[in-house]
């Protein structure tokens, strides 16, 4: 099976995202975690540091590959010959947005999107919440994978 893709917005630094990777590996032979580069939104880590942190997190999992890309997720999906784009869903709002994005990606690439629903007990742990807690100096270890 060809690799699969988590789009560049994927943030593995919370339990919920680690759970989504585990769910993907239960369904598929291989997963590519794609780290997108958006110069206008540098985020709380440099791209290099973020990429290395993700690689370190999955260094013992041979079925996970970490790649960096720029541009559109759809273009990158074609480049690596992805069979599906995997998107994490945590809330109803996420579901509605991701459903619309799935339609756009299918039209642009012909590649289907698989929506992975987070474990409900982890759904409230958003990466933006964890980043905000870290910013204000709070302990974030309970939320890390």
At a glance:
This protein is of the alpha/beta class and 145 residues long. It is built from 5 helices and 5 strands. The chain starts with a strand and ends in a 10-residue tail after the last helix.
Please, could you describe this protein's structure?
The longest helix has 18 residues. This protein has a 3-stranded parallel beta sheet, sandwiched between helices. It has a single domain, classed as Rossmann fold (3-Layer(aba) Sandwich). Strand 2, helix 2 and strand 3 form a beta-alpha-beta unit. The chain is built from 5 helices and 5 strands. The mean pLDDT is 77. It is 40% helix and 20% strand. It is of the alpha/beta class and 145 residues long.
Rg over C-alpha atoms, rounded to the nearest angstrom: 15 Å
In CATH, the homologous superfamily goes by the name HUPs
Under the CATH scheme, the architecture is 3-Layer(aba) Sandwich
Topology pattern, helix = H, strand = E: EHEHEHEHEH
Shape field: globular
Oligomer: single chain
Percent of residues in helical segments? 40-55%
- Average pLDDT figure: 77
Strand content: 15-25%
Largest sheet: 3 strands, parallel
Alpha plus pi helix count: 5
Helix-and-strand structural type:
alpha/beta
Strand line-up of the largest beta sheet: 1-2-3
Tally of separate domains: 1
The CATH C-level class name: Alpha Beta
CATH fold-type name:
Rossmann fold
Termini distance?
A: 27 Å
> Could you tell me the number of beta strands?
5
Ranges where pLDDT stays below 50 over 5 or more residues in a row are none
């Amino acid at each position: 099976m060809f690799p699969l893709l988590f789009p560049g917005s994927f943030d593995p630094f919370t339990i919920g995202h680690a759970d989504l990777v585990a769910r993907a590996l239960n369904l598929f032979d291989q997963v590519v975690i794609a780290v997108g580069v958006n110069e206008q939104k540098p985020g709380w880590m440099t791209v290099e540091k973020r990429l290395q942190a993700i690689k370190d997190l999955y260094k013992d999992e041979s079925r996970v590959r970490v790649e960096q890309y720029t541009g559109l997720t759809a273009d990158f999906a074609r480049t690596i010959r992805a069979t599906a784009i995997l998107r994490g869903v945590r809330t109803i709002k996420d579901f509605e947005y991701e459903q619309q994005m799935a339609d756009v990606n299918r039209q642009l690439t012909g590649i289907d999107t698989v929506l992975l629903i987070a474990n409900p007990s982890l759904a409230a742990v958003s990466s933006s919440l964890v980043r905000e807690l870290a910013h204000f100096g709070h302990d974030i270890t309970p939320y890390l994978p």
